[in-house]
Each structure stands twice: as structure tokens, then as C-alpha cells.
């Protein structure tokens, strides 16, 4: 069966510091991969999606970036964090028939 | 473009009572429809999904949802709520484009009174 791992689960970072969140999927090949953000008390916002290695599309402009160095690995990064980057970040994957499955999420607090 | 509304921001029900969470969508073609549940501090878990066929869909944890094309709705129901059902519930609508573009509603927070 397929599983998704996301880490770290929580982190507290100072403003201006870099960020790296990592996600890996097991048990499937060539999945679509996604990064969502969920701000406190708000719905889910799609940040990035990827349909293949090295193929990244951004849904919203921001100071975050994403990379997919391997088929089942998806990384969310920032060179300099802002206070507004605080939130709950969720990695997700899908394969046909087009159902999205989520990881457990990463809590980011920027101080 | 697709969109989803969940008219109820917060609902409180007594344990053992029935539950219905409302979801309305906007999409030009036949949508893919989903309900997810999120417990505090955790990821989203898929409850059920509709792609085609029978408009009454059964899911996990005793939930069901009914697709009504004429009303553009996909309401979630459960006949008897348990205290452990307290969580945030998200309706979502999908469209097959170059990727699986899924738009989520704002969510409905469910509280259960013992």
C-alpha cells in the first residue's frame, strides 16, 4: 500500500532563516505531488504541484519554492522566511483515479 | 473554474443525533467530489469520493454522501454521531486537467456534545 512521509513535524524558525520541508511517497510510481498550506482557521491553499521529476508549477506567488529531485520526493524551501509563512504545511500525492492523499503535515512557526 | 462552498462554518450536535454537512460546488462538467476529515493538528483523511455512477456514496466511519446534480450539492450525512467525529470537515471538487486540480471548501467545524 502507498504511504507518505513528511518531516519535520514541527519547527520554529526565526524570520530571515531558511526552510526545508521534505516529503516522500512510497508504494507508487510517478505520482502527482502537491504542497498545500493551511493558515490558522482557514482552508487549504495549493502552493505547488508537480507532475514529474523537475516539473514544478506554482499556484500563488510567494517567497517559497519547491523541487522534485526524485520521482517520489518533494521538497518545499525558502531562503528567507517571513512571519506570514507561519502555518500548517501539507504534502500530498495522487495517481489516477485522481484522489489526493495527504501526509500528516508540518507545523511551521516563524518568530 | 471550479469552486466549493460550505455554508456552515461551525455545527454543534449531540452525541447520537444525526448529522448533515452541506456542500455546494460550481463546475461546468461532471465533477469529481470528495469529503475529507481533519482532526486537530493532523493531515486530512479521505472519507469518501464520487466519480460517477450511483449518486449515494458510502464512506468510512459510517458516513455517506449524496450527489445531486440539479442542486449542485454533495452533502455529507451520518445517522448517529459519535464524540470522536468532532473534527473539521472539508468538501472538495476536482477537475482533471494536466494534474489533479482539487479545490477545497473552507471547511465546517463539528463539535459533539456528550
Mean pLDDT of chain B: 92
| Beta-strand share of residues of chain A | over 45%
Computed Rg of chain B: 14 Å
Helix content of chain B: under 10%
The helix-strand sequence of chain B is EEEEEEEEEEEE
Q: Characterize the overall form of chain B.
A: globular
Oligomer: heterodimer
**Regions with little confidence, pLDDT below 50 for 5+ residues of chain A:** none
Most residues in contact: chain pair: A-B, 22 and 24 residues
Shape type of chain A = globular
Number of helices of chain B: 0
From the structure above, extract its key features.
heterodimer; A: 111 residues; mainly beta; seven-stranded mixed β-sheet; four-stranded antiparallel β-sheet; 11 strands; 0% helix; B: 114 residues; six-stranded mixed β-sheet
Describe the structure in brief:
Chain A is an all-beta fold and 111 residues long. Chain A is built from no helices and eleven strands. Chain B starts with a strand and ends with a strand.
Would you give an account of this structure?
The complex is a heterodimer of chains A (111) and B (114). Chain A is an all-beta fold and 111 residues long. In chain A, 0% of the residues lie in helices and 61% in strands. Chain A is built from no helices and 11 strands. In chain A, the strands form 2 sheets. In chain A, strands 2, 4, 5, 6, 9, 10 and 11 form a 7-stranded mixed beta sheet that branches. In chain A, strands 1-3-8-7 form a 4-stranded antiparallel beta sheet, with no helix packed on it. In chain A, β5 and β6 (55-58) form a beta hairpin. The termini of chain A are far apart. Chain B has 114 residues and is mainly β. Chain B has strands spanning 3-5, 10-14, 19-21, 24-26, 32-38, 44-50, 56-58, 64-68, 73-78, 87-96, 100-104, 108-113. In chain B, the strands form 3 sheets. In chain B, strands 2, 5, 6, 10, 11 and 12 form a 6-stranded mixed beta sheet that branches. The mean pLDDT of chain B is 92. Chains A and B meet through β5, β9 and β10 of A and β5, β6, β10 and β11 of B.
Amino acid at each position: 500500500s502507498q504511504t507518505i512521509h513528511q518531516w519535520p513535524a514541527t519547527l520554529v524558525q526565526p524570520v530571515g532563516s531558511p526552510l526545508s520541508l521534505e516529503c516522500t511517497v512510497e508504494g507508487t510510481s510517478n505520482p502527482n505531488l502537491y504542497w498545500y498550506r493551511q493558515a490558522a482557521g482557514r482552508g487549504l491553499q495549493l502552493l505547488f504541484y508537480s507532475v514529474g521529476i523537475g516539473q514544478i508549477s506554482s499556484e500563488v506567488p510567494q517567497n517559497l519554492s519547491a523541487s522534485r529531485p526524485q520521482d517520489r520526493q518533494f521538497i518545499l524551501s525558502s531562503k528567507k522566511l517571513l512571519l506570514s509563512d507561519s502555518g500548517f504545511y501539507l504534502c500530498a500525492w495522487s495517481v489516477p483515479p485522481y484522489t489526493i492523499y495527504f501526509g500528516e503535515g508540518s507545523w511551521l512557526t516563524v518568530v | 473554474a471550479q469552486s466549493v462552498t460550505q455554508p456552515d462554518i461551525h455545527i454543534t450536535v449531540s452525541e447520537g443525533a444525526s448529522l448533515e454537512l452541506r456542500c455546494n460546488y460550481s463546475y461546468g462538467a461532471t465533477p469529481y467530489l470528495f469529503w475529507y476529515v481533519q482532526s486537530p493538528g493532523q493531515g486530512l483523511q479521505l472519507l469518501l469520493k464520487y466519480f460517477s455512477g450511483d449518486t449515494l456514496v458510502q464512506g468510512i466511519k459510517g458516513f455517506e454522501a449524496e450527489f445531486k446534480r440539479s442542486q449542485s450539492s454533495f452533502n455529507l450525512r451520518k445517522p448517529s454521531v459519535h464524540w470522536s467525529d468532532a473534527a473539521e470537515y472539508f468538501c472538495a471538487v476536482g477537475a482533471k486537467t494536466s494534474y489533479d486540480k482539487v479545490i477545497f471548501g473552507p471547511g465546517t467545524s463539528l463539535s459533539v456534545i456528550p
